[in-house]
Hints:
The protein is α/β, with parallel strands linked by helices. It is 24% helix and 30% strand.
Amino acid sequence: MSGKVVVNRCMSLDGFIAGPGHSMDWGDDRALADFVAPDDLAEIAAATGAMLVGRRTWEVGERMEAEKPDSVDYPFSGPMFLLTHRPLVPPNPHVTILTGDIGDAVATALDAAGGKDLEILGADVAGQCLQRGLVDEILVYVLPVLLGEGIRFSSPGLARTALQPLSSTRSGDATILRFRVRKQSDQTV
């Protein structure tokens, strides 16, 4: 069994994955786990074998953890890969730094996932993966908030990408949407 490459995102109803300054404040000091049913979050985390994270997303997570210790709300414990050109200071022994080609980075992290899914976190990394046709699915937690501005779900310049809806599930206060990314060979004009 081979895992899938899954872009995993929280998103406001108006299409933002983060607020101004890459803020992941969803309001009322709530984190993802405060919106999504614990069993659903645990099921998705259990299917995840590794994560490939972009540098900005990593830095936002580090800042959130520094401001509110123990705020990590995702029950994942597999290998973490950080796609960056700069080393972490101080180094983190639990994180593997990857540089270079996005295809090579995805292949390395997917191999480390051990047959489970590779979760892609970060707008830039996700955009690069989508542009190269490396993504199998997109998983979106739509949260009941309007941010008004911030970081959009997809970066400017992303080519049209056809999606096949797989599921839509109410989970706590969130709606979990899952789509299969249709490969160019699947798409008809």
